[in-house]
Amino acid sequence: MASDPAHFRVCSTCRKPIGFEQTWYRCSVSTCNRGKTALFFCSVDCWSAHVPVVRHRDAWAEQEKAPTREGWLAQLQHDEERENRAALPSTVADFGGGDDEAELPRDVLVVASKLKAYVRARAGFNTSDNVVEVLSDHLRELCREAIRNAAIDGRKTVMDRDFMPLVRRGGHDRG
Ligand SMILES: [Zn+2]
Ligand SMILES: [Zn+2]
Asked: Which fold has domain 91-169?
């Protein structure tokens, strides 16, 4: 849809433009007024022309007045903003502050045996079982921030680049 329209609509029958603040006619039948397929008529004659085509049994024309140009632009912008919000399904809002994790899985996210093996190989130390839970919580927190980064970027796939700034922040400067 054009963001700066020259007129309100075109007539569904004769394609003549329906200007702002001009009188137009809508069909009384609800299916002729639905969303993007809604019909607009410049005159009662043009309305009459569609009646046999769509085989209405009981229908009439309702007189309407087109909005002002300003009113129409405001309406278009409003619709566009609403569509944009719908396209990004509240991810940013929900995961931004979303601390309500009660219904989310609390599984262990790291492989305990591999972790223990690494610590043992590196230092010969043992690893307490509770460590995996602390690390899992930490991973969940990182995921939440990464999801937020992806959502801000307009993606629904979390990628490595969403984590990069998060794990660098942790300062692995000793190498
Ligand atoms: Zn017409
Ligand atoms: Zn109709």
From this structure: Histone, subunit A (1.10.20)
